[in-house]
Amino acid sequence: MDRLSALPKPILHAILARLPDKDAAKTIALSKTWRDTWFSFPNLSVCIHPLRKDNRFRKMDILIDYRLCECLTTILIGGWIQMASESGIEVLELHLPACGAEILTSLHYNLPFCVTEAKSLTKLVLGLGIRVDQEFLSHSMKFSSLKRLSLCYVRLAHEGILQNLISHCPLIEYLLVKNCYVPNDLSTEDPLVIRIDMVKSLFLNGLQKLKEVHVQGIQEVHIDSPNLENLSYCPMGVDAPFKLNFDSCTKLRCCA
């Protein structure tokens, strides 16, 4: 055991990555070295169901996939994200499992502002059940290393949050925005019915590194990105009027 404990930390992390989650967690009882190795382990999974072997993480240095349930508190999850942000996280994926009507009525988790403090973050994926609050509109922030951003069915406290979030990603190369929405203040007789307004417009300006954009569910899109090469666009409805402006994208090679 002493020889194993003397191995470099990346090798110890590689050993943990090949163990079942429960067995990997038990290594903290072996020695102080293994306890420190576990607390600095970059692959963190919090799931309702255990991960199968064929679903283990590959090629991504750090992946946090939170499938939340009510027994996991917001404070606990926020602490995990804070720890990851301070430990050189590169890839962060957050979403809640939901389908059909559950997309709008299921539990939502507020994205903590500490995500913006992750200086090494290169890929951010936000999906079902993630809510971005007013804090991301009223505070200054900068995703200084983010290159890939995906937002699918994200609940926004204000439509301007989406614009503000993207504009603070100066190195972004890939962007996906799909059916993001804002809750409507109009009340309904049924408490389970939530009125929503889809994000109506998106302006992509000053993103010099942007090469690939996928947009769905937004009726007005303006893109001023000289290095854009690939664009995929789908409005909310086939018969609904839409406006798409990408005249300044001189390097565009593929548009679907």
TrEMBL record:
One Pfam family named in its UniProt record: F-box
Stretches assigned to the F-box/LRR-repeat protein 15/At3g58940/PEG3-like LRR domain: 79-232
Domain F-box positions: 4-42
SUPFAM superfamilies to which the protein is assigned, alphabetical: F-box domain, RNI-like
Signal peptide range: none
Coiled coil: none
Gene3D superfamilies, per the entry: Ribonuclease Inhibitor
Protein name: F-box domain-containing protein
UniProt source species: Stylosanthes scabra
